[in-house]
Design goal:
The complex is a heterodimer of chains A (114) and B (113). Chain A is 0% helix and 52% strand. With 114 residues, chain A is mostly beta strands. Chain A has a single domain, classed as Sandwich (Immunoglobulin-like). In chain A, strands 2, 4, 5, 9, 10 and 11 form a 6-stranded mixed beta sheet that branches. The termini of chain A are far apart. In chain A, 33% of the residues are buried. Chain B has 113 residues and is mainly β. Chain B has a domain at 25-96: Immunoglobulins (Immunoglobulin-like, Sandwich). Chain B has strands spanning 5-7, 10-13, 19-24, 31-37, 44-50, 53-56, 65-68, 75-79, 88-95, 103-104, 108-112. In chain B, the strands form 2 sheets. In chain B, strands 2, 4, 5, 6, 9, 10 and 11 form a 7-stranded mixed beta sheet that branches. The chains are: A mainly beta (114), B mainly beta (113). At the A-B interface, β5 and β10 of A face β4, β5, β9 and β10 of B.
């Protein structure tokens, strides 16, 4: 059973546009939701993260929107640039049980066309 | 060091060989995690250490996989009698403590032939 479902699998956006990636989770105990960016041959790099006590968090061009009742969260990349072309992963974790292993989505391959 | 480092970066093993993958976490980070990332997939949790204690090994796929962190810093993931299905990128991550942000290393790409 896939606990974090991510869509779309791939996305092409024109330079300057808004990239939107969506995730849905099933485990209501999850209380930490990060987004990671991964370039080929590199490890995932933390972009931005949110906890359920807020509905939105913005850092620069990156915004997470969180809907606790729908168990969904999304990443918005404003003014998308060719350098943003990468694979993006959403993840979730339960931080109250001592084991904070992240459960990842399957990833979204984002291409920003110049 | 400034970030999480892993070695070797690439490892080719013949089926049946044993391999050992090393992770150096960020200095002072209490928590250390191992993940397995198959081609085109998201990372999957393998195991978690808090200092030298292995608190969760529920993600280890078989008893051929073994991880240790004897002094609470460097960790080694060992895979015995490697199989082709073990081919993947093995990622290590560390965080300051429970519930903290996890920072990943570059990974070790293991190819079993």
């Amino acid at each position: 059973q896939q606990q974090v479902k991510q869509s779309p699998q791939s996305l092409i956006v024109q330079k300057g546009g808004i990239s939107i990636i969506n995730c849905a989770y099933e485990n209501t105990a999850f209380d930490y939701f990060p987004w990671y960016q991964q370039f080929p041959g590199k490890g995932p790099a933390l972009l931005i993260a949110i906890r359920p006590d807020v509905s939105e968090k913005k850092e620069g061009r990156f915004t997470i929107s969180f809907n606790k009742s729908a168990k969904q969260f999304s990443l918005h990349i404003m003014d998308s640039q060719p350098g943003d072309s990468a694979t993006y992963f959403c993840a979730a974790a339960y931080s109250g049980g001592g084991a904070d292993g992240l459960t990842f989505g399957k990833g979204t391959h984002l291409i920003i066309q110049p | 060091g400034a970030g999480v480092s892993q070695s070797p970066r690439y490892k080719v093993a013949k089926r049946g060989q044993d391999v050992a993958l090393r992770c150096d976490p960020i200095s002072g980070h209490v928590s250390l995690f191992w993940y397995q990332q198959a081609l085109g997939q998201g990372p999957e949790f393998l195991t978690y250490f808090q200092n030298e204690a292995q608190l969760d090994k529920s993600g280890l796929p078989s008893d051929r996989f073994f991880a240790e962190r004897p002094e609470g810093s460097v960790s080694t993931l060992k895979i015995q009698r490697t199989q082709q299905e073990d081919s993947a990128v093995y990622l290590c991550a560390s965080s300051l403590g429970g519930g903290g942000e996890q920072y990943f290393g570059p990974g070790t790409r293991l190819t079993v032939t």
